Amino acid sequence: MTQTRYSMQPPDTTPQASGPVTTPPAVKAPTPAAAPTSGDADTLARAQAGDHYAFAQLYSLHKRRIYSLCLRMVGNVAEAEDLTQEAFLQLHRKIATFRGDSAFSTWLHRLAINVVLMHLRKKGLSLISLDEAMEPTPEEGPGRSFGAPDLSLAGSIDRLALERAISDLPAGYRLIFVLHDIEGYEHNEIAAMLDCSIGNSKSQLHKARLKLRDAMRTFPRREGRR
Amino acid sequence: MIEDPKNMTCQEFQAQMADFIGTGEDASAHPHVQNCDLCRALLADLQTIAEAARQLFPVVDPPDSLWEHIQSAIKEEEGDPSRQ
Known about the structure:
The complex is a heterodimer.
Chain A: H1 38-48, H2 52-74, H3 77-94, H4 104-122, H5 142-145, H6 159-168, H7 171-182, H8 187-194, H9 198-223
Chain B: H1 10-15, H2 31-35, H3 37-54, H4 65-78
């Protein structure tokens, strides 16, 4: 049986305010960077063996990206906190099953994305079909998307408008847009995470961008801005 | 089937547009872009959106209290073997 030690704080990769921190004896100092190192592999192995301090280290290493991912996906702080908690709880339950077929961070992100997806489905939000065909619908086809060059967005992006437009995207579009254009995942990685084809990932991303463009082009008029 | 870049329709070009944005690929020299004002404008807009989005959301820390919640939940689960 693994002895549980809950009194420790998670080691952080960022400077901490001074205060009482109970550090268990005979543990390695936390790795001061999020980049994978051999220390990370050791931490992972110990966490898989049930070492709670090692799990706390993993939390510290990955919490920012997981929380930020959740926040971008749902656009709500309270929900993002709940989802981050659920993601790390699932990680705790499943960490022993990680076999190293992919990078641990990729595996954890996929787990977190699944948590977000399940949450969105539970909320009944309309996740678009990832199997949707490439054929543009009349609404999304070139005729609607095109605009005269003098209406170009170049140099006139309003951050607030873009944030709002992204949060207004249908959940499925937002998911792929966030993963690709913000998180920097490649289409093959997204396809693997979402269990869809690379072509579908590209198609949905393109449609998401078109929707954002439409939203950005109408925003100034709707909001009475320039 | 691979389309001839010179004879692409707008629809064919747009079907590939995701490959040209945010990937570091320079699409400005693409034959279709050079000959189509509308696709050129669309490409510029989508590149602008993708670039702006990349700088939109900083990576942020969750509140410190979140770890406490996670610890409590783990403790609770470990005390309940049915949830293992």
